[in-house]
Specification:
Layout: H1 10-15, H2 17-20, E1 22-27, E2 37-51, E3 55-67, E4 77-86, E5 91-100, E6 106-121, E7 134-150, E8 155-169, E9 185-197, E10 208-220, E11 223-238, E12 242-255, E13 263-265, E14 279-281, E15 283-296, E16 299-311, E17 323-335, E18 340-348, E19 354-360
Antiparallel strand pairs: 1-2, 2-3, 3-4, 4-5, 5-6, 6-7, 7-8, 8-9, 9-10, 10-11, 11-12, 12-15, 13-14, 15-16, 16-17, 17-18, 18-19
Length: 364
């Protein structure tokens, strides 16, 4: 199915559920009960699937959730690792982490991705036709590291470091005369992040709010450009089992960003229903809403949708090219204590675009 990032083995996940969760409790010397335990949940799941970019692929994805400390102030930390290998001898390896120190004095978050990955080129802009579609492949290294220190009231601030490297691989469908933007790029970025995270959970929030402002100065081929990312989320739960979540995401670029660092519309976390990279431009604005409810015991369902807009100049807003998306999802609470869901989402966009997504945790 279009845009599927990972098709996990659904039946295998459920049938092997009791064997894939490893829980380890370490009691404190004082013999405290709940507050005196460190708990580790390890959720490894085989992955396999098919997408137009990769053909058939197999791999594995694992999520580790851990509470390191003996206090009620520190939320659980988590790390996620994924590896996929395709029949076309392509691979993608990724590692992401969100780690709190004691009493949430520091918040360390980041991601590293190494891949040799096929992609589809449609050009730049919010109204590029399907006839522009061209396949290409590149070696990619991308990374982002955030070192955030707590201030007051679950507010954090600190430096953010970015690094991206894209190296083109010869491909029969690649023609330099036709695709001048597909060039080898190496990007360095440094900036500052201001974060307020009052969510009750990182992977399955049901209450609280989240505000993230990141400003970075970046350089490629000695050309400077700037990026501002603004991510605002709000969560409200009523009657215990019904949650409404809303997200406003704005990704802005100034001066001359390279093709590989433009804002992308699509994917399993930003705008479900579109192939990630089908539309890209300097600036992205999206508003997404989701209703979540418990269906029966560990099972739940969601209804979600939103509107998105891409454009080159912030002032040049044309509602004619607004991109809608909507969809339905199913949830299975694979870890009841940490309330971690395995999610299955199907979403549609305009012009027949759609996507099926399976992953740990919520999209936002």
């Amino acid at each position: 199915m279009k845009g599927a990032r990972s098709l996990l083995a659904f039946c295998l996940c459920i049938s092997l559920y009791s064997s894939v969760i490893a829980e380890t409790s370490f009691h404190s010397p004082e013999g405290r009960d709940t507050l005196g335990k460190k708990r580790v949940s390890v959720l490894p799941v085989p992955a396999f699937g098919y997408s137009p970019e990769t053909s058939t692929y197999i791999g594995a994805v694992g999520l580790v959730s851990i509470n390191f400390y003996h206090d009620t102030l520190t939320r659980s930390s988590n790390a996620k690792a994924e590896f996929n290998y395709t029949w076309k001898k392509q691979y993608i390896t990724s590692l992401g982490w969100e780690i709190f120190t004691k009493n949430e004095g520091f918040f360390l978050k980041g991601a590293l991705v190494f891949s040799k990955y096929p992609d589809l080129y449609y050009g730049m802009g919010e109204n590029t036709p399907d006839s522009y579609k061209t396949g290409f492949t590149s070696n990619r290294i991308t990374g982002e590291i955030n070192l955030l220190k707590a201030t007051t009231g679950k507010r954090f601030c600190g430096p953010v470091i970015r690094y991206l490297k894209y190296a083109r691989i010869d491909d029969l469908t690649y023609h330099p005369q036709l695709l001048p933007t597909l060039e080898n790029d190496e990007i360095f970025g440094f900036g500052f992040r201001f974060l307020t995270d009052k969510r009750n959970s990182l992977l399955n929030p049901t209450r609280g709010r989240y505000t993230d402002l990141a400003i970075t100065s970046n350089t490629w081929n000695h050309i400077p450009y700037y990026k501002i990312n603004v991510d605002v989320r709000y969560y409200l739960t009523f009657h215990d089992n019904h949650t409404f979540a809303i997200r406003s995401l704005n990704l802005l670029s100034f001066h001359s960003p390279p093709f590989f660092d433009l804002s992308l519309l699509g994917g399993d976390n930003q705008v479900r229903g579109y192939y990630l990279g089908r539309y890209r431009d300097r600036n992205l604005f999206t508003l997404q809403g989701e209703y979540r409810a418990v269906l029966y015991r560990r099972w739940g369902y969601t209804v979600f949708g939103g509107l998105s807009k891409l454009n080159t100049e912030i002032s040049a807003f044309d509602e004619k090219y607004l991109k809608p998306n909507y969809g339905l999802g199913l949830r299975f609470m694979i870890d009841r204590r940490e309330k971690i869901n395995l999610r299955f989402d199907y979403a549609r966009g305009n012009k027949g675009s759609d996507g099926f997504y399976i992953s740990f945790g919520e999209a936002f």
